[in-house]
Every structure is written in structure tokens, then in C-alpha cells.
Write a structure and sequence with these properties.
240 residues, 10 helices
Amino acid sequence: MQDDDFDSSNTLLQDLEWNSDEPVIRWRWVYYTSIVLYGIIIVLSLFQSSYAVMALFVLLGIWSRIPALASSFTKDIEIVDILTVSIAINLGGLTGALYGSLIILGTKAFGPREYPGYTIKESIGFFLIALIMPWVYSSLNQNLFYTLNIFTVLRYTSYMILTAVLEPGALALEAALCIPSFCVGLFVNKLTTLFLGDFLTSTLGTMQMTFGLFFSISIGIGAFFALSKTTLWLTERRFK
């Protein structure tokens, strides 16, 4: 049992190292996916389809994850949490669950160095917890900030439970990584709720594509692109 524990934690440590034969970000894959999604969004917008709005939020969620894939230092600077919760409470728990889990799981293809165990456990947690967010939101008098914090608490709790079950040898290391990440997550919740809460509620409430929405989210995508490139540049300098 001790050998299994050692192997589990050692594997996690190796996956967290910077040195790897794989690229940090598969930029071509990200660019091609973005072009395809933008094309789908434009076509759907011509027919005034609400799916154009959903596709736009899928693209935003993908780009939100790129800085998190670029470095462990920016892993918590993403907005998949509030996007998942907002979609769940406005469009249904199952829709939010599928959105969040598939964004987490799918974007692993763009960041091959992300620890696979993290991706799997995180996507499972996102799916299960998003299902109950409409009920949590209603129970908290439709307070998005409190709902998002509950999501964060349950997300990290489920992650540690899954670690204890699937990778018991990595439990101590994961706990050491999750504690500061949890604190940062609560702070990010405050900022995202403050700046995005009303915007997401109104947008997902109507599901209507407008030029202003398209432009605003494209600006957000550009910001995540700049953050990703800056993070990679700083990280590469640090490890030289």
C-alpha cells in the first residue's frame, strides 16, 4: 500500500513539472477551434438562433481556460465557474452541468501538460454540483454570489473526496495545492460576481445575440489571449 501511495504522489509531481516533450498550449488547435466556432456563431446569428449565444459562451469558456492551462500560477484566473453556475440557474442544471464538465474535459486537448487526474476529477465535480445549483440559487433568495461560493466549496470538497478514493497517495499534496487555490477562488468569485453577475443574468435570461454582446465577449477573449501569452512568457523566463 505504501508503494502505491508513493507512486501516486510521484506521478502527480512529475505531471506538475515544467519540463515535457509536449507543448504547453497547442495554439493551432485553439486557433482552428476558435475559427470554427466563430463561423458557427455567425451562421446561427443570421437565423436569430439562441444557440449562437450558447456557442459564444462556449468559446469564452474555452479561452478562459487557456491561462489556467498555461501555468499553475494562473489556474484559478478563469471564469468557467461563474459561467457554469449562471447557465445552470438560467437554462437548467443539466445544461450547466454539461457545459462546465465538457469545457474542463475538452480543453485538456489544448493543454496536454495539465495533470489528467485533475481534469477528470474536476470535470466530474463540475457536472455533479452544477445539477443542484438551480435549487441552491432558489434557496439563497437568488443570490448569485452566495450560490457561486457554495459551488466553490462543493467543488473543492468533491475534488478531495475523489482524490481520496482514486489517488489516496496524492491526498496530502493535493490538499496543499487546493487550500491556497480555494482562497483565491473565493476572491475571484467576488470579482466575477461584481463585474459579470448582472451581465450574465440578463444575457442568459434573453438568449438574444446582439453586436454588443458579440463585441464584448470578443474583447474578453482577447484579454484571455493576452494573459495566456504573458503567462507563458513569464513562466519560460522563470524556468530558463
